[in-house]
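Workshop exercise sheet. Pairs work together: one partner reads the sequence aloud, the other fills in the structure field after running the prediction. Swap roles for the next sheet.
Pair: D.N. / O.F.
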Amino acid sequence: MRAVLNKWLFIVYLLGSGTIWSTVMLLLYPFVGRSGRYALAASWCRALVRVMRVLPGIRCSIEGLEHLPKEPSIILCRHESTWETLAFLGLFPRRISFVFKQDLLRIPFFGWVLKGLDMVSLDRGSPRQAHVAVTREAAERLSKGDIVVIFPEGTRVPHDAPVRLTSGGVRLACATGAMIVPVVHNAGKVWPAKGWPTGAGHIRVVVGPTLSPAERSPQELIHDVHDWMQSELKKL
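Structure field:
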């Protein structure tokens, strides 16, 4: 009973604080620059991570941050739940820009804030046009010093699902020359791909060693990312 109560208290906090904080951020947006907007969003995400420890009892840790290169790079990450889209801004010490579906911009408050954060939107129309547009936008964010985060499986997947990568993230790295950083986690064990947190647990995020597009072919890169992800997921 207590676990159920904590779950619903967390949901109320998430939706309530998200709406209030989004309103505050939108009011402040005209007076702060790109860095200030990101700092406001990251501060809410860090608070959310702390609240998760108390209400649903979800703790988290991140390993391998020493692998992040100093220069802008591309993170290829497993997408298992809503958790990573909320927590990553609070966990990673560098500014990150998600590649997200353009449809999300239409969501009241959340979409408006997302637009102000100047990340990379993906219009799922023609694959060729989408790749060209994302490459251009991602290159702009990389030039600003961002780490671009891509979910190479294209959608949310259960934690125990086999790794199936699309080539978009690797092609983007080859087009921009940015280093690839593979990342896995086990958020799906406590926060499923669909729905809300199921209870207490420990989410581990593992950052892998960088891969250079200058030293490998696209096929080799996909193979190396796939094998590393598959191997690390078995340990989580």
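Discussion prompt: Strands lie at 58-63, 73-77, 96-101, 120-122, 147-150, 179-185, 201-207. What would you look at next?
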